[in-house]
Amino acid sequence: MAIILSHPGATVGSVLTEIKTERLLLRRLREADRENIVALQADPETNKFNVVPHTVEGARELYDAWMKQWAEHGFGYLAVSALDDPEVIVGFGGVRYHEWNGERVLNLAYRFWPFAWGKGYATEMAAAVVEWAEREIPEVPVIANIMVSNEPSIRVAERLGFKIHTEEEFEGAPSLHMRR
Q: Which residues lie closer than 8 Å to 48 by C-beta, 6 or more apart?
């Protein structure tokens, strides 16, 4: 994994701009990505495990929150593309600060276009991001909240060593709260 910083002298914890894995480029979200990521976030097929699917307007509000996370903390969710075709966004994912039952955590999330499913991209992206987060922000635990019905995402988390911590309601549905 290669991590590329935006300027000499920066630390990974202060300004993360890119992570390259064996097959993927993970890079900071940009304003130019907004409509693609909003469409992905609001796509009915990618929302099939959500109790309440995201609307386009709701997805835009989330994108604004994600951009704010970047501005305030120097990291957040990342656009994901294949190294051999970096202009095509296949998904997004990463970690961002979240409050969970009064505890500050890093919430791991990922969402990919259906054409990218089944290729191991979520596992590859999440492994790189979790490695970065645990190295650079070790005092904040990385968690994953996954709807009980979302078996593909549960398998991704399990491959990364996440275990069920609790089972409780999250966003209106029975969910697994997973930690490493």
A: none
